């Protein structure tokens, strides 16, 4: 049975408004039924776990500078999804073959970049947007018409060392209190091409380097060591553009697109001359690598042995202030039933890792 209505990000959505027998509509019930699932908001689900790990990286390395949006409605206008991010009128991604249209002016977002322009207009300069995205595609082990994407954008990049230069130049003439205020404001101002030049770099090459550094750091945070490579790419909204690929199951797999944000987008949305980068990362494919999940369809499983494999079942602190946790882990293979010996071996490895990595005492 398909729900007749749901509420998303404060927007009420009726099934009959999204699934209609009408030539401007190509949304089937099977897709409508995915709209309210929000796997990225389930902390026990692999998609939620990965999203939280990405947020952790940004909070830790950028001292909570990034605003987070998890609940933006996936029904967006054609303008938001395409025009605002400069997708050309004849671009193939606009076709009814590739995108789900609710009517001629409304689509199910095909990327979380659809929210970039409105967030800029609302004055956000550093943000993470996570959500379900929709693309008409045939289904196989690494493709599914619904998946989850984290979009990240960082604006107002500053020339490296500018801070210290500015500090010393002004040191003699300005009272230290004013100086402090000024230092805080540096993060939110635009640097002129001359200032960039004085730093020995142009804004675009600096942004490309800063972006790659950020993403390589993220990959290390998530994977430790992993084989990865950068590929030159094309996106209408960034220039230059790149894709990051990760080696998985004996092939290179694309996991994200990124680049230096086109000035036209910044200009159109009130951020004249800001230097910015952005990326869009597909959560399913990364989670497949990270958790060794062999098939993308498994993310939609309702089987609790998949959706919550580890559960904290007891949490106790004794008089000395030592806390003990008891976890239940469901071991399960997609290929065969596991034997006791196989599970014991897995359990032994988990205990060993927990002991060394988390520095805890095992019981
Ligand atoms: N929107 C692109 C996609 O879905 C990813 C991307 C985001 C690329 C931001 C560049 C900058 O494939």
UniProtKB/TrEMBL annotation:
GO terms for cellular component: mitochondrion. PANTHER family: PHENYLALANINE--TRNA LIGASE, MITOCHONDRIAL, PHENYLALANYL-TRNA SYNTHETASE. The keyword Transferase does not apply. This is FDX-ACB domain-containing protein. Residues 233-363 form the FDX-ACB domain. It comes from the Eukaryota. One of its GO terms (molecular function) is tRNA binding. InterPro entries: aa-tRNA-synth_II/BPL/LPL, Fdx_antiC-bd, Fdx_antiC-bd_sf, Phenylalanyl-tRNA_Synthase. GO terms for biological process: phenylalanyl-tRNA aminoacylation. Keywords: Aminoacyl-tRNA synthetase, ATP-binding, Ligase, Nucleotide-binding, Protein biosynthesis. Belongs to the class-II aminoacyl-tRNA synthetase family. PROSITE patterns: FDX_ACB.
